Amino acid sequence: MDQPQNLRSMKQENIVEIADRLGQRFAATSLEDEDHFVADNIKALKEAGLVEAGVPVELGGGGATIDELAEMLRVLARHCGSTALAFSMHTHQVAIPAWRFTHQKVAAVEPLLKRIANERIILLSSGGSDWIAGSGKAEKVDGGYRITARKVFTSAAPIGDLLMTGAVDEATNEVLHFGLPMNSPHVKVLDTWHTLGMRGTGSHDVMIDGHVVPDAAIALRRKAGQWHPLFQIIATIAFPLVYSVYLGVAESARDIAVGLAKKRKPDSHVLKLVGEMDTALRAAQLARRSMLEAVARNAPSAESINEVMMGRQLVGQNAIRAVELAMEASGGAGFYRAQGLERRFRDIQGARYHPLQSGPQAEYAGAMALGLPIDTIF
Q1: Domains of the chain listed by start with CATH number
Q2: N or C end of the chain: which has fewer CB within 10 A?
Q3: What pLDDT digit, counting tens, does each position of 157-189 carry?
Q4: Which pTM was predicted?
């Protein structure tokens, strides 16, 4: 691979422009088969150099900031929500070690970041199944741990190279974190992703049955069921990127609805719907901005989690509301698949399900306001 050529091209055309150009191509084929994993789209993003966009320049990457990565994902989502959401899971897994390298001078993340830049490997996140409580079983054996687990919501599973995951050592009640090669004979992708929306993300379950992780490959040990400083970094950085995707979906739904509404004779009812839609969308945009401002302070903490998770709720709620209003404002035309609006209506529903969901988020915010412990609220 000609890395210098890639870096030169990324300077000539920034990652947001690349995402927009490729996204227009993705949109042209997005109606063909929604259940089909967007493998060709991810390959195109890889060929364009976006896989390593967030890796620091000195390690061979594009050196993109969190703001730039968020914009890349937002613009991509305007064209294809599934591609953007699947790619956001890789993107945040790159952004987190890049932040640790840049701001905490953590040398241990260098080999991973260099692999991403040099080999353009795709990182997978097992998301909800590896939240604060952890999941799966890590059994101590000679020289390492035998892993038995089923990881759900593993976006881009069919094309991933390395699953960033963990398992629980029941003997110590610790979650062990490690990268697991997807080409292991003990790893299998199960065909489980048949869903309401975001159908092309390939977020299948991954079964791990007996893969042994060497002791030296354990990157972190932490108490199960409790917030850890690393998860303060993860929660602060990851969710502004993921929710940039849902904002992009809502913005594109709004544009479709306005286009359809303009074809009809306007009345006060339509004016009201469109006005409410734009107001909800603006609330989502402002909330996403607040999330990125929390990241920009470069001080992950319980407080930054609170700010980001309030923003996550506000983006999600208002993006969903904006798309609901778009369906109404567009009239019967919006009910047809060819318009692309009903797909966005289904895709936006995914905003409900990422951590922290509404109950834990409100409990976390309440505990913060009252000065009570938040260590086990997740």
Answers
A1: 3-121 (1.10.540.10), 127-223 (2.40.110.10), 229-370 (1.20.140.10)
A2: N
A3: 999 999 999 999 999 999 999 999 999 999 999
A4: 0.95
